[in-house]
Amino acid sequence: MDASPVRVLHVIKSLGLGGTEKVMQLFVTNLDRSRFIPAVYSQADGVRARQIRASGVDTFIGGDLLSVLGRFKPQIVHIHRAGWPEPELLVPLKRARVPAVVETNVFGRHDPSPQASVIDHTLFVSRFCLTRFSHATGISPHPGRYTYLYNPVDTDFFANATRTNRKYDAPAAGRISRPDPGKWSRMALDFLPLLVRNVPDFRYHVIGAVPEAVEFIRLHGLERNVILHDPVETDAGIADFLNGVSVLAHGNDAGESFGLVIAEAMACSLPVVTHPSEGLRDNAQLELVEHGVTGLVANNAEEYANALNYLFSHPVEARRMGLAGRDKAARLYRMQAITKRLEALYLELLRRKGITQ
């Protein structure tokens, strides 16, 4: 007789358009339905909730998590969080005696609270985050307790949706983020006057402009060079946007714990220009963007402008980096392979706890 499917509840605070929410969505919609019954609990509804429900996955919105646990009766709870203490999410898991708890620790933070003892396995979203966590805490990253699992990307879709006749010498760069100051960098603005001086027909396509960016554009008379776009809600919208540019111009002072937009641009055969972050901030963008291989890394605004100019004026090199990025994304971030690894972790945790399926 076949084993009963494993009931898995993914827990997340909100279901908007953020990268954390998208990663969770990709996981629940790609789990093997013959082996797993996924569902989602969130305190707030949002765009992704509608998309998740349309895929046939149940969502529990608002209300008491403990009561949801009692109704759904999951064998595994997978919580997506920043890493710092969140007793309102962890205490119900202990009270409900959930057999196995996995967390995706999005920002690699350490939670020393007693409530965190309910977590059986921590997944970091990059090798960088796992390594920094170990160095900062002195905790040995034992693979039975701490591992990294890259965020899933629909690399097949992006590769198929990519323009086959992309012109890498077209002076057009794209930028995608939430309209959140924490997602921006001064370098993402300061390079503009320097580049336009040498490439007057440069076009900067931006999703997620913040008021500071809009004011910078006005003050420097760059309205002709910068095109502001509305947010997009689907991978088709992202692919359409990226098909209109020759390079992804990434910039974020806080850095990236993974860099989902970077990985998606790589899957679209785009080279990426980025920069390092200072101190102990996130720097996984440098794990994805290898200088001279999948893009270029700049240390200041002048280098950033020069990097973009170099790619526009060396289309053969830009294409080489773009194709290398596509191959790397397919090898490391393909959602089907990433989800299979997650499924294997779920089953191994249940096996360790003596729960047979």
Helix count, DSSP H or I runs of 4 or more residues = 14
> SS-based structural class?
alpha/beta
**Low-pLDDT segments, ≥5 res:** none
Strand content: 15-25%
Termini Cα gap: 11 Å
Strand arrangement across the biggest beta sheet: 3-2-1-4-5-6-7
What would the principal axes of the Cα set say about the shape? Answer: elongated
Number of strands: 13
Q: Residue-averaged pLDDT, rounded? A: 95
Q: Can you summarize the main beta sheet?
A: 7 strands, parallel
Pattern of helices and strands: EHEHEHEHEEHEHEHEHEHEHEHEHHH
Rg from Cα: 21 Å
- Helix content estimate: 40-55%
What would your notes on this structure say?
It contains 14 helices and 13 strands. The protein is an alpha/beta fold and 357 residues long. A 7-stranded parallel beta sheet has the order 3-2-1-4-5-6-7, with helices on both faces. Helix 7 crosses helix 12 and helix 10 crosses helix 13. It is elongated. The model has no long low-confidence stretch (mean pLDDT 95).
List keywords for this structure.
13 strands; about 350 residues; seven-stranded parallel beta sheet; alpha/beta
Blueprint (SSEs and pairs):
Elements: E1 6-12, H1 19-30, E2 36-42, H2 47-54, E3 58-61, H3 65-72, E4 76-81, H4 87-95, E5 100-105, E6 121-124, H5 127-137, E7 146-148, H6 155-161, E8 172-176, H7 187-198, E9 203-207, H8 211-219, E10 226-229, H9 235-242, E11 247-249, H10 260-267, E12 272-274, H11 285-288, E13 295-297, H12 301-313, H13 315-332, H14 335-352
Parallel strand pairs: 1-2, 1-4, 2-3, 4-5, 5-6, 6-7, 8-9, 8-11, 9-10, 11-12, 12-13
Helix pairs in contact: 7-12, 10-13
